[in-house]
Design goal:
Beta-galactosidase, Chain A, domain 5, 11-stranded antiparallel sheet, 11-stranded mixed sheet, 22 strands, elongated
Amino acid sequence: MQQWARFAILGAMFVVAYLLILAWQKDYGQADIKAQQETAVVSHDVSADLPNGQTVATAASDVPQANIATQQAAKNVTAPVSQQLISVQTDLYHLWINPKGGDIVRLELLNHDKNKDSDQPFVMLESDAKRTYVAQSGLIGLNGPDSGRSGRPVYETEKSVYTLADAVPVKTKEGQTVKQLTVPMVLKTADGVEITKIFTFTEGDYPVVVNHKITNRSAQNWQGQMFGQIKRDNSEDPGKSDQGIFTLGTFLGGAWGTPEEHYNKLKFANFNEEKLSVEAKGGWVAVVQHYFVSAWIPGDLKLTQANGQAYSAKLESRKSADEMNIIGFSSPTFNVPAGTTAEVGATFYSGPKIQSELKDLAVGLNQTVDYGWLWPIAKLLFIGLQFFHNIVGNWGWSIILLTVLVKLILWPLSSKSYRSMAKMRVIAPEMQRMKEEFGEDRMRFSQEMMALYKREQVNPLSGCLPLLLQMPIFLALYWVLMESVELRHAPWMLWIQDLSAMDPWFILPLLMGVTMFVQQMLNPQPTDPMQAKVFKIMPIMFTVFMLFFPAGLVLYWIVNNSITILQQSFINKSVEKERLKREAA
């Protein structure tokens, strides 16, 4: 009875782990990825400044509709002829801004490599013939320049290259001094309205503050709204993991949140059918991919006679005419009377999904690090990993120390189970004798067996408890390894140079199989021949299955099995000594 229960739980773990992959693929994988066009309409006069000869695709009519009954063309603007891209480099990234519209058209993460075998930076945003993924923002509405029939406005800048050498020291709220870099872009209308679009970058921070300052020197009232949106095609996720025969897909699509509904996912395929249309103060919109996220967080609206206050933004999603996926926000309509000034802004984040940074930007944004339905356990495991990493500075050793900690916490419960299993092992010869004595009399054999269990104080099902306790931890750690960018390409030692990927030499899975076999030999052996065969096959099945799992997860299982072997060996000897003393007495 006990053995079949153990087999059922082991089999359940095998099936659940397999279903985990299938469910992950269904929920996160992009099954219907449309083929992307290999050509794009290119603005030839802005491409010279992109790295590696990249070109910038011009935006289609994807600017959101304003909250006005009739749309009027914006006033004519004066702009320079040159449209050279503006290069901005900080300690964290290198990005390029298109003066036409002031959109971020390319962003490279300097502290994250393209892949573990490359020293090239990870490209987060780009706009070329192969992929479109850009961050757009501007002013729409009655007088908004982005609503004009002539297309997006062209801003003027003092220079085309900005670095931290141009930054100035500023004091933070905590009293620290950091470097802050501002990139102002100016647009002047023929009737005297000056719009300054200001990008503010802070040393050591990924968020970019984007403000629009409207100075109305005309004789008329100015009216408009700010919008911010992320536009992406249906191309594959460049950050997805490749696990041998398994290509583990992670969620690629839209996401949004409000103070009331913290985290919601929206697949690209559902941008029209399940269209997002929510108005909220303190909300956010994002495009999520494996390990990385891009998000807009609406900011403040400041009029001349009032302090800056957070505005209630409308969060929306849609498909553009050229089948691009667009998710963004728009502010309420605001007025700038003649002779006054107003300022409206938002924060843009594009980078790794670092929970400690995302949680401070908006409620629920840190949940884009999606640990699935076991997120409470996964969160605790990640906190433990971070704690040990701060001490040893290596994620592999952190996994080992975390495993030891988990075993210590579960030690009281597991010890009782292993003690019961040890007693089962001791009485196994007596059970075999009873089986031979009573033969086909199953009723008598069951009665004698239950009497033996009672006399020896053995619970035949208690041996299943360690497996039941390990199952949620195993699955939660899987999600931690798959979703935590901190473990992306994290080396351990020797041949293990990426704990989030499979072992390239399959050494860890083989070691796991050996430890599982040794552990089974310490358990009471089945009396039924068929059960004994299944018992011996289990380590082989799990070894094959673990060949394609992340090395960090297999490492956890090896350490867990090794500690279990030591614990069980000690308890087996202790129980055996107790029985010998009892028999001698």
